[in-house]
Design goal:
Organism: Halosegnis marinus
InterPro entries: DUF4112 (IPR025187)
Oligomer: single chain
Largest sheet: 2 strands, antiparallel
Number of helices: 6
Order of helices and strands: HEEHHHHH
Number of domains: 1
Protein name: DUF4112 domain-containing protein
Pfam families: DUF4112
Helix content: over 70%
Strand order of the largest sheet: 1-2
Structural class: mainly alpha
Shape: globular
Length: 113
């Protein structure tokens, strides 16, 4: 169980870094690297999706159900596809937060909430 908790802690750190690790001054909105990477043309969204898939792989190693893995992959795919749309994709990244969602799904599936 200690190993599982260590992996979940690492997953949470990655999700926070990607989705909500920094607060924008003045407006107070939390953002992560995911929407910022989306601003990089020709590969930013792909790079963000690769990091997001790392969380799916870790969840699979922890033994989450196939149904949960499918939902996690859907979250990453939706984030990646919508993220390719200029401006709309960046705004979507700010609210969808696929990585935070996926960590919550994995924890719920493992009964660790």
């Amino acid at each position: 169980m200690a190993d599982t908790q260590r992996v979940l802690d690492r997953m949470e750190r990655v999700a926070t870094l990607m989705d909500s690790g920094f607060e924008l001054p003045v407006v107070g909105v939390k953002v992560g690297l995911d929407p910022l990477l989306g601003l990089v043309p020709g590969g930013g969204d792909l790079a963000a999706a690769v990091v997001s898939l790392y969380l799916v792989v870790e969840a699979a190693r922890l033994g989450v159900s196939v149904r949960t893995l499918a939902r996690m992959v859907f979250n990453v795919a939706l984030d990646a596809v919508v993220g390719t749309v200029p401006l709309l994709g960046d705004a979507f990244d700010l609210v969808w937060r696929a990585n935070d969602r996926n960590v919550r799904l994995a924890k719920r599936d493992l009964g660790v909430e």
